[in-house]
């Protein structure tokens, strides 16, 4: 049966503004009351003021700032933000920050809408215009309908999925990520690479998602190291923003795989930044997935699509893994969990529960191989010991 015998769809949202000065696109709208979801870092380093200055110049004087966002946002943080939006009833919600701020804003919109549906007739419900301004080039959250929230009680990451959470506009201004520290640049950049590679080989990949994923992969290998070494290179920064956006569009359509399933479980357990968790996991998951003929073929196609050929005596998969390891090494990143200082005894006590959580993670469903529990345990050992 031909793939074309099945009707599928591919949708690109939101409107994307990019380039130096793109934050001024906010002035294209006639907002009267705005709520900004952000974190204390954005306040401290003046990035929030960049946004409020633009809004105030436009004549928007009713601005409420919810700056309680923390890394790996929890359900508690979302509940506090929900109170703010229910009280203020803004006509625009702006998320300023990394994936944590954008995911928090998404979850606030999601739960607010669900709550209102319980008490208000649908015709009286109006969703605020939602603008995402990412200050990292990593999660791609500004162009996806996904959000990940942590339930602290169960130490689980909850994946929310709804088109309600898709931003109406994404603003990519490289000035917003110019001051991002090198370590954060490296971690978020490797998150982009993971999104691109996983979506490319996902069971739900399609010609559109592969095109976005391929270009994102190319841009990461071209620009991430330079962005890490020279934070003031706005061309490299802008390139990484576009890569992040493209990878987000790709995985929003195609889905991901067990790399993210492991990263969710590991990140929740040891409070690792999401991009760092993905980076540590990536080589070992590629090695496992390449045992599948279709996945190995797609890795080879991906390598070819970015203008590279397998190294002499190496397969395409081996070449791709070496490139990833080299990029990680160039940015002084750990190559296994043990090198991150995670205690071996604690790992051994946790591995069974980590695998259980990864097995039921929503990302596992679109992995090119359906892993067994024994497979997952072996992969996890590789991730911890680095072999």
SSE order and pairing:
Elements: E1 15-18, E2 33-37, H1 40-44, H2 47-58, E3 62-66, H3 75-88, E4 92-97, H4 99-119, E5 129-134, E6 146-151, E7 156-161, E8 169-172, H5 182-201, H6 207-229, H7 234-254, H8 258-270, H9 274-289, H10 293-305, H11 316-330, H12 344-360, H13 373-385
Parallel strand pairs: 1-8, 2-3, 2-4, 4-5, 5-8
Antiparallel strand pairs: 6-7
Main features:
387 residues, six-stranded parallel β-sheet, two-stranded antiparallel sheet, alpha/beta, 13 helices, 52% helix, Rossmann fold
Summarize the structure.
The chain has 387 residues and is of the alpha/beta class. It is built from 13 helices and 8 strands.
Structure description:
The chain has 387 residues and is of the alpha/beta class. The protein folds into two domains: 15-176, 3-Layer(aba) Sandwich (Rossmann fold); 182-385, Dehydroquinate synthase-like - alpha domain (Dehydroquinate synthase-like, alpha domain). The protein is 52% helix and 11% strand. Strand 6 (146-151) and strand 7 form a beta hairpin.
**What is the class of the largest domain in the CATH system?**
Mainly Alpha
Described by the principal axes of the CA atoms, the overall outline is globular
Counting helices, strands and paired strands, the structural category is: alpha/beta
Indicate the low-confidence ranges by residue numbers: none
CATH fold name of the largest domain, please? Dehydroquinate synthase-like, alpha domain
The percent range for strand residues is 5-15%
Q: How far from one another are the termini?
A: 40 Å
Strand and helix order: EEHHEHEHEEEEHHHHHHHHH
CATH superfamily of the largest domain: Dehydroquinate synthase-like - alpha domain
Count of the domains: 2
Number of beta strands: 8
CATH architectural category of the largest domain: Up-down Bundle
Strand order of the largest sheet: 1-8-5-4-2-3
Radius of gyration: 20 Å
Instruction: Give a quick account of the main beta sheet: strands, pairing sense, barrel closure.
Output: 6 strands, parallel
Approximate helicity band = 40-55%
Q: Enumerate how many helices there are, as a single number.
A: 13
Residue-averaged pLDDT: 92
